[in-house]
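Give me structure tokens for this 291-residue protein.
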Amino acid sequence: MSGRLAQVSQHLSSAHGRGLLAGEVAIITAHPCSQGIGRSAALLYAKEGAKVVISDIDAKKLDIVGDEIKAAGGDFLAVAGDVGADDFPKKIVTATVQKYGKINHIVNNAGFTFDKMLHTTPDDTFDIIIKIHVRAPFRLIREAAPYFRVKPEARENRSIINVSSTSGLHGNVGQANYAAGKAAVIGLTKTIAKEWGAYGVRANTIAFGLIHTRLTASKEAGATMEIDGKKVALGIPGAPSTGTEGQDLPHIPLRRGGSPDEAAAAMLFLASPLASYVSGHTLEVTGGAGI
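Here you go.
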């Protein structure tokens, strides 16, 4: 058995019964964290032994996920705040290190859509999407740099996971802002992989296709969120209800959309030692759509 394979095997063996991320610390941003992919990822990471740092702009919503993690025997820290705020990166990194002493993983999952046709998109609608989907992940990663660029003797399993979308890979009607932001995230991730690879840090992107969340539910359902004092309508006009059973989608080879739990499983894979030689990659989690 090669040295590297032996290390992975030893890690998996020592984690057996405790989880793939036993003893590791993961920051997971979400908007909101109380539902969708953010909630599923937080619960799954905790189940696999990670100490999970969760964030949401609404402190009350954090309590919901925190209670679920606690009920499952997990360890968590809740840090309320707007991921786009200037003081947020320092706030969450400082709180994480004060409680746990280190950071192993950052999952930049916070985001939303603000769709308009390109010729009707005002500057502020474009700028807010870039701020949340590109600037915010960049600033959080930069703030955490001292805990990733570490000496060899202090190295553990460490990774950065940035969430993109098939819109970032292929573009999408009505999403000039979102597609631009999600494409930028891929370039950011590849740069991190090249700059921090020497420190043993892996950086990967996940490009999600249709995952049943508030963002992909019917816009007519009326779901909204407030960003910078503005109410933003969520969802897709005329889309089927979220999680519709037996919904047949011919453009997806698996003929269905994915669940938040399936999305979270892909995040777990990229953070885990199972992906110890995967870096700079964009993992498409789409049910085969776009092939």
